[in-house]
Specification:
The chain is mainly α and 275 residues long. The chain has a domain of 169 residues: MetI-like fold. α2 packs across α11. It is globular, with a radius of gyration of 24 Å.
């Protein structure tokens, strides 16, 4: 079949729209002038590329110290929010899958609501809650806020996995004398693990990327990476350091993706070998 030129052009435009901004982020991580964000002098002379922004990050230069601190804060909050969301999301998904009724319908509606609510509404609601409870905004309020919306995504991901789950294997485990805990860890959990991992990755991505909700519930000195970068874009002369750090994050993500592919391929190879 002859390929259509129109479809090829559309594909090229879509790929450019998706990946050119990422390429520019990597490109501007080597810009020498953080004030003008240009590779050229005022007279048009080409300056060249520089790796000083990466040196500043790895050396812990005081000019980017706050940026690095905000990055580690985001990683900490995202990691904790992911772990707690996976635990709560797994139990909630199992409850929604096993029991039916009006109460579970309400439970499902409460879980589904954060998915369709605007982020600004969630942020305002949580801020009003913390103010009413006389809780000072800071690390813990950000963590609670992130868990609030991350749990819903984990629940929905695991529920999708449970759609193909055969409940008869659980009953067979009980019939063979296994207890509830043994059945969960040796029968249900291995089946649910792909859904839990997928939900956890989604929760981590959403948490480390959130800016709207975090803006409402953060306190003084608790700026996460997105909120700090948002303020840097307006007045900082060290903006290329953001691009450099983002490039390192991109490389780290690619490495994780490669490792996950290798692990999955190794698991399939072992399974075929046993068969």
């Amino acid at each position: 079949m002859k390929r259509s030129y129109f479809s090829t052009i559309v594909l090229a435009l879509v790929l450019a729209f998706l990946y050119v901004p990422i390429i520019l982020v990597v490109f501007y991580g080597f810009v020498p002038n953080g004030t003008t964000m240009s590779f050229y002098k005022s007279n048009g002379e080409f300056i060249g590329f520089t790796g000083k922004w990466y040196s500043m990050i790895f050396s812990g230069d005081r000019r980017v110290e706050a940026l690095i601190e905000s990055f580690w804060l985001s990683l900490t909050i995202a990691g904790l929010a992911t772990v707690v969301s996976c635990v709560l999301g797994t139990t909630a998904a199992l409850a929604l899958h096993r029991w039916k009724g009006k109460l579970q319908s309400l439970h499902h509606a409460l879980v589904y609501t954060p998915l369709i609510m605007p982020d600004i509404l969630i942020g305002i609601s949580l801020l009003m809650l913390f103010v009413a409870c006389c809780v000072d905004c800071g690390f813990w309020t950000i963590l609670i806020a992130h868990i609030t919306f991350c749990v819903s995504y984990v629940v929905m991901t695991i529920l999708a996995r449970l759609q193909d789950f055969d409940d008869r294997i659980v009953e067979a485990s009980y019939d063979l004398g296994a207890g509830p805990w043994y059945t969960f860890f040796h029968v249900q959990l291995p089946v649910l693990m792909p859904g839990i991992v997928a939900g956890g990755l989604l929760a981590f991505t959403l948490s480390i990327d959130d800016i709207v909700i975090t803006t409402f519930v953060n306190g003084a000195g608790t700026n996460t990476f997105p909120t700090y970068v948002s303020s840097m874009t307006k007045h900082s002369k060290n903006l290329p350091a953001v691009f450099a750090l983002s490039t390192l994050m991109l490389l780290f993500t690619c490495v994780l993706m490669g490792l996950s592919k290798l692990i999955a391929r190794g698991g399939r190879t072992k399974t075929k070998g046993k068969i």
